[in-house]
Amino acid sequence: MGAVVRHGLVATANLERFSIKILTTLFLCGLMMASGIAPSSANSKYAGLVMDAKTGEVLYESSADDLRYPASLTKMMTLYLTFEALKAGRISTNSRVPVSRNAAAEPPTNLALKPGQTLTVEEAIRGLVTRSANDAATALAEFLGGSESRFASMMTGKARQLGMSRTTFKNAHGLPNSAQKTTARDMARLGIALREHFPQYYDYFSTRSFTYNKRRYGNHNNLLGRVKGVDGIKTGYTRASGFNLVSSVQANGRSIVAVVMGGRTARTRDAQMVELINRYLPKASTGRDRMLIARAPGGARTAFASMVPGSRVPVPTDRPEIETLTAYASEEEPRSVAAAVAAAAPAPRPKEVVARVDPMPTASTASASKGSGWSIQVASLGSEDEAIVFLAETEKKAPQVLASAVPITETFDKGGTRYYRARFVGFASKSAAWGACASLKKKNIACYATQQ
């Protein structure tokens, strides 16, 4: 009888422990769902990364190299090139930016700009960081690049220089374009580059509100002023992308840049970001700051239509030594943007990863694995700006031929002089590259195909 009682007591205890374990698990799951944290398999759009802004160490990552739509995170690069022009003295904050019919037609969110009017560079910048104004973004792009397509090529070229190897820009605002892709890792690099390269302008990202044409616009970044240490940077949303956010945080001698992409709602995205900040900021270094991303030489010095190269542009007459560069593996967007919206659950719970970020490539050279694909070279020029604009002009002349290719520049030295190769990368095979080059030659565009 005693043995039976003992077995009964043990069974009861085991059942109680089992019940407690189940209840605990259900309670934790409830907390995770309430805070917007769920298994990653539930949200195929999610991607995230936290980087120590002092050391470059990656403290957390999830799908950080998977291609995503940047949405209005795109405007971070639009602002990078604007700050570059300001720093070089090519424009000032009081320069007047003309508004074209094309810019004024951009859909909300916008500043309701009208064709023929102008606004200052200062107003355009503040319109981007607070209202995320699409019309102001396009106006800036046309002002700095002569056209939005040229400016988009400049954006992609700058991305390569900054080590953003998987990012392609096709517009300045982030409205849907199936070829405009990025990754959480690339967005983290851009966030750090903005902080490092333009400290004199970085405070724009902490603007809480902006008044234009007697209307006040609040910043879309809900964490500003609510989470200690958050000083920017940018939000983004389209139906295809989900809710995106890049945050810069500096507190208690520590500094991080965190990225959340693909949130189901702004609220769950913000909750996930707060979770990342609370969890990983205490793990960041308290050491001294060091430059993580090399500043690219030159820059878009005179990126206007008058820059379009003429007869002085040398075409590729010989095959220079092959250097490594980055291939872009493109993805097709679903035919319907609405169909791309998954029944997404909230973002996944952070998984702790401690790994050194890949070495940043030198700013003037695109980098990737040798033999990763084929590219086409169309010119070798003495200026990076000319190379970027030449690529844009070539793309404009043969949009169908180069629809899936990505324009990049890379440097080489000859006779003590630095030159810039203008190339289109991303061809999957020799026949694809040779066929594209043959089509370009029919349009009187000199080129040759080369394996990466």
Please describe what this structure looks like.
It comes from Nitratireductor indicus C115. The active site is at 72 (acyl-ester intermediate), 75 (proton acceptor), 132. This is Peptidase S11, D-alanyl-D-alanine carboxypeptidase 1. It holds the Pfam family Peptidase_S11. GO terms for molecular function: peptidoglycan binding; serine-type D-Ala-D-Ala carboxypeptidase activity. It is a single chain. By secondary structure, the chain is an alpha+beta fold. The chain folds into two domains: 45-283, Beta-lactamase (3-Layer(aba) Sandwich), CATH 3.40.710; 305-334 and 365-451, 2-Layer Sandwich (Alpha-Beta Plaits), CATH 3.30.70.1070. Helix content is 32%, strand content 20%. It has helices spanning 2-34, 75-88, 101-104, 121-131, 134-145, 148-161, 184-197, 266-280, 384-397, 430-442, and strands at residues 47-52, 57-62, 96-98, 118-120, 209-212, 215-218, 230-238, 242-251, 254-263, 352-356, 374-381, 406-414, 417-427, 448-451. It has a six-stranded antiparallel sheet, sandwiched between helices. A four-stranded antiparallel sheet has the order 12-13-11-14. Strand 12 and strand 13 (417-427) form a beta hairpin. Helix 2 (75-88) crosses helix 5 and helix 5 packs across helix 6. The longest helix has 33 residues, at 2-34. The protein starts with a helix and ends with a strand. The model is unreliable at 9-41 and 297-372 (pLDDT under 50).
Mean of pLDDT: 78
Kindly state the number of beta strands.
Answer: 14
CATH superfamily of the largest domain: DD-peptidase/beta-lactamase superfamily
Major sheet summary line: 6 strands, antiparallel
First-residue to last-residue Cα separation:
81 Å
| Poorly predicted segments | 9-41, 297-372
Supply Rg: 25 Å
The CATH top-level class label of the largest domain: Alpha Beta
**Proper CATH architecture of the largest domain:** 3-Layer(aba) Sandwich
Keywords: Carboxypeptidase, Cell shape, Cell wall biogenesis/degradation, Hydrolase, Peptidoglycan synthesis, Protease, Signal
GO biological process, one term: peptidoglycan biosynthetic process
Protein name: Peptidase S11, D-alanyl-D-alanine carboxypeptidase 1
Family: Belongs to the peptidase S11 family.
